[in-house]
C-alpha cells in the first residue's frame, strides 16, 4: 500500500512539473518600446502620404489639417494603450502566482478525492494477498451479496406494504422468491398481482407458471391450464401462452399436438439462437414420442416410390433421432460448522436447475444426511417434466438442500448449498458444499 502511494505521489509531482513552470516563467518587458516604435513609424508613413496628396492638390488645406489631426489623435491613443499594458504587468504576474498556488493544491487534492470516490482501494490489499486468501475474500463477498439480496427483498416488502397496489412490485417480488426457492412466498406474491390485474395476459401467465411450479407434481393441469387458455383467447399469438399450451398437451401425452404448437413458435425465432436450439430439441422430443405412440399397420408400411425413398429416409432419421443424454456427477458434502443442525435421517435433495428458464428442477435425487459425503449422478432419466431435461439446456446451477420437513418445498431453516453455473456437456463433475441456513 505504501509503494502505491509513493508512485501516486510521483505521478502527481510530474503533472505539476508540466503545469507550474510555464505559468511562473517571467516575461521580459520588451513589447512596449517595440510597439511604440511601430506606432510612430506608421504615423510618419501616413503623414508623408497625406502631405504628398496636399502637394499634388488632391486635397485642400482644410482636409489636410483635419486628417493630420486624426492621425495625431490615433498616435496618442496607441501610445497611451501601450503604457497601460506595461503598468498592468506586475498585477498579471501576481495573478499567475496565485493561480499556481491554487493549482498546486487543487490538482493533488482532486486526484486523491476522485480515486477514493471512483477507485477501489481494497484491490491493492487483494493483490498483496495470496491466491487462497483472495478466494476466502471472494467467498465472503458472495455471502455479503446474498445478504444484500435479502435486504433488497426486505425493502421491497416494506414498499409494498406502503403501496399494496404496485403491480410491478408484486411481480418482481414473486420472481425473486421463486429464484431463491421460496415457492410459497412467491406464489402468494403472484396471487396478489393476479388479484390486482386478473385480465392482463403477462400476469395471468406468470400466475399460471407459479401455480405449476409450486405444486408437488409441477403439472399445468387445472387452474394453470384455465389461465393459459384464457390468455390465448385474449391474444392467440402470444408466444408464452402458445408455449405453455404446448406444454399442457405434452404433459397430457398429446405429443403431436405439442410438437405442432412449438413448431409454429420455432418458425418465428432466429435460426441458430440458443432459444431456437432449446425449443427445437423439445419439438424433436415431442415428435419422437408421437411416433412411438403410433404403430403403423402392414398397409401403412408399404414401400414408397423409388423417387421418394431418399426424402423419406431423411425425414424418418430426423423424427427418430433422440436427444443426446446428459449427466452430471455431483460430490455433495456438509460443512462441519453447521453439521450439528442436521439429523442423520433428514432428507437431502440434490438437483440441477436451468440458469435461464422455468424454475422447476431438471433432475432431482434424494438421499439422507447419514449418506454424506456422497457422490450423486443427475441425468435425463430424473427429469420432473419429459420436455425439460438436462440435455435440453446448455447451462445449469447445481444445488443440495437438507429438508427438515422431508418434502421438496424449501422452507426457512433448511440447510443448503449451490454451485456456480455449469456447462452441460462440457462439465461432468461438480462439487456442492451445504454451508448455509435458509432464512
End-to-end Cα distance? 38 Å
User: What fraction of the residues are assigned to beta strands by DSSP?
Assistant: 5-15%
**How many strands appear in the DSSP assignment?**
8
Coarse shape: elongated
Query: Superfamily at the CATH H level of the largest domain?
Result: Tetratricopeptide repeat domain
Mean pLDDT: 75
The sequence of SSEs as H and E is HHHHHHHHHHHHHEEEEEEEE
> What is the percent of helical residues?
55-70%
Strand order of the largest sheet: 3-2-5-6-8
**Poorly predicted ranges:** 128-147, 296-324
Number of helices: 13
Q: How does the major sheet shape up?
A: 5 strands, antiparallel
CATH C-level class of the largest domain: Mainly Alpha
Q: CATH architecture of the largest domain, please?
A: Alpha Horseshoe
Number of domains: 3
| Cα gyration radius (Å) | 41 Å
CATH topology of the largest domain: Serine Threonine Protein Phosphatase 5, Tetratricopeptide repeat
Protein name: C-type cytochrome biogenesis protein CcmI
InterPro entries: C-type_cytochrome_biogenesis, Cyt_c_biogenesis_CcmI, Ig_CycH, TPR-like_helical_dom_sf, TPR_CcmH_CycH, TPR_rpt
Keywords: Cytochrome c-type biogenesis, Repeat, TPR repeat
Subcellular location: Cell envelope
What does this structure look like?
The chain has 439 residues and is an alpha+beta fold. The chain folds into three domains: 2-118, no CATH class; 142-291, Serine Threonine Protein Phosphatase 5, Tetratricopeptide repeat; 327-437. It has 13 helices and eight strands. The protein has helices spanning 2-24, 31-55, 61-118, 122-128, 131-162, 167-179, 183-196, 201-214, 223-234, 239-251, 255-266, 274-293, 309-320; strands at residues 327-334, 347-354, 363-368, 374-379, 395-403, 415-423, 429-434, 436-437. The chain has a five-stranded antiparallel beta sheet, with no helix packed on it. A three-stranded mixed beta sheet has the order 4-1-7, with no helix packed on it. A hairpin with an 8-residue loop joins β2 and β3 (363-368). α5 runs antiparallel to α6 and α8 (201-214) packs antiparallel against α9 (223-234). The protein is elongated, with a radius of gyration of 41 Å. The protein starts with a helix and ends with a strand. Residues 128-147 and 296-324 have low confidence and may be disordered. Residues 328-435 form the Cytochrome c-type biogenesis protein H Ig-like domain. Residues 141-274 form the Cytochrome c-type biogenesis protein H TPR domain. It comes from Thiorhodococcus fuscus. It is found in: Cell envelope. Its main location: other.
Amino acid at each position: 500500500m505504501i509503494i502505491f502511494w509513493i508512485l501516486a505521489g510521483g505521478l502527481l509531482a510530474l503533472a505539476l512539473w508540466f503545469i507550474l513552470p510555464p505559468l511562473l516563467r517571467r516575461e521580459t518587458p520588451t513589447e512596449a518600446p517595440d510597439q511604440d516604435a511601430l506606432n510612430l513609424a506608421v504615423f510618419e508613413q501616413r503623414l508623408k502620404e497625406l502631405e504628398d496628396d496636399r502637394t499634388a492638390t488632391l486635397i485642400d488645406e482644410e482636409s489636410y489639417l483635419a486628417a493630420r489631426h486624426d492621425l495625431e489623435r490615433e498616435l496618442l491613443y496607441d501610445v497611451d494603450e501601450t503604457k497601460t499594458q506595461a503598468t498592468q504587468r506586475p498585477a498579471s504576474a501576481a495573478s499567475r502566482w496565485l493561480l499556481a498556488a491554487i493549482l498546486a493544491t487543487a490538482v493533488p487534492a482532486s486526484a486523491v478525492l476522485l480515486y477514493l470516490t471512483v477507485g477501489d482501494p481494497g484491490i491493492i490489499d487483494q493483490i498483496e494477498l495470496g491466491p487462497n486468501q483472495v478466494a476466502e475474500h471472494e467467498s465472503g463477498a458472495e455471502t455479503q451479496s446474498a445478504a444484500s439480496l435479502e435486504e433488497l427483498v426486505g425493502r421491497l416488502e416494506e414498499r409494498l406494504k406502503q403501496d399494496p397496489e404496485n403491480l410491478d412490485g408484486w411481480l418482481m417480488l414473486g420472481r425473486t422468491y421463486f429464484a431463491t426457492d421460496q415457492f410459497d412466498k412467491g406464489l402468494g406474491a403472484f396471487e396478489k398481482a393476479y388479484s390486482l390485474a386478473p385480465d392482463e395476459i403477462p400476469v395471468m401467465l406468470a400466475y399460471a407458471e407459479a401455480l405449476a411450479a409450486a405444486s408437488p407434481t409441477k403439472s399445468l393441469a387445472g387452474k394453470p391450464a384455465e389461465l393459459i387458455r384464457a390468455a390465448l383467447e385474449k391474444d392467440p399469438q402470444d408466444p408464452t401462452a402458445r408455449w405453455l399450451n404446448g406444454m399442457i398437451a405434452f404433459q397430457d401425452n398429446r405429443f403431436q399436438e405439442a410438437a405442432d404448437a412449438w413448431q409454429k413458435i420455432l418458425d418465428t425465432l432466429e435460426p441458430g439462437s440458443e432459444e431456437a436450439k432449446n425449443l427445437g430439441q423439445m419439438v424433436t422430443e415431442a415428435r419422437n414420442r408421437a411416433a412411438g405412440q403410433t404403430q403403423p399397420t402392414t398397409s401403412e408400411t408399404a414401400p414408397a416410390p423409388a423417387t421418394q425413398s431418399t426424402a423419406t429416409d431423411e425425414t424418418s432419421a430426423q423424427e427418430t433421432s433422440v436427444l443426446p443424454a446428459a449427466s452430471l456427477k455431483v460430490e455433495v458434502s456438509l460443512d462441519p460448522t453447521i453439521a450439528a443442525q442436521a439429523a442423520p435421517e433428514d432428507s437431502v435433495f440434490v438437483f440441477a436447475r436451468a440458469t435461464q428458464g422455468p424454475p422447476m428442477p431438471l433432475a432431482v435425487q434424494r438421499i439422507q444426511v447419514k449418506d454424506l459425503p456422497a457422490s450423486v449422478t443427475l441425468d435425463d432419466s430424473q427429469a420432473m417434466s419429459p420436455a425439460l431435461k438436462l440435455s435440453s439446456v446448455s447451462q445449469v446451477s447445481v444445488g443440495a438442500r437438507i429438508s427438515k420437513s422431508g418434502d421438496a418445498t424449501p422452507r426457512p431453516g433448511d440447510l443448503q448449498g449451490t454451485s456456480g453455473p455449469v456447462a452441460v456437456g462440457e462439465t461432468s463433475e461438480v462439487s456442492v458444499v451445504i454451508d448455509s441456513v435458509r432464512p
